[in-house]
Hints:
The protein is mainly beta. Helix content is 0%, strand content 48%. The protein is built from no helices and 11 strands. The chain has strands at residues 3-7, 10-13, 18-25, 34-39, 46-51, 58-60, 68-73, 78-83, 92-99, 115-118, 122-127. Strands 2, 4, 5, 6, 9, 10 and 11 form a 7-stranded mixed beta sheet that branches. It has a 4-stranded antiparallel beta sheet with strand order 1-3-8-7, with no helix packed on it. Strand 4 (34-39) and strand 5 form a beta hairpin.
Amino acid sequence: QVQLVESGGGLVQAGGSLRLSCAGSGRTFSAYAMAWFRQAPGKEREFVAAIKWGGGNTYYADSVKGRFTISRDNAKNTVYLQMSSLKPEDTAIYYCASDRRYFYSGTSYTADALYNYWGQGTHVTISS
């Protein structure tokens, strides 16, 4: 059974930082790209960041570029999202997801339909 478990969410003030973690089990996650998505209240789920299976390539939404950093530790089956300079508009439930494509080497990562395993989400609230 494949599982993804996020942690690290919480309440921080604007300008602060948080580090989210996503621990995976039940799959060889090192063979798949991983991504973070988020869903703010009343809004659609949106792509935040993705990291290729080998960790050498990362992709970001324009809204978080330069503030968020995605990384992974394949030995631990864990992906991270370091978030800095947080803004109230970053408030959302953050989900990690595992790509359905095995050893995918392209550059298409933003559509949520590309991911077949999802965590339960972790809440991030940024106060102004």
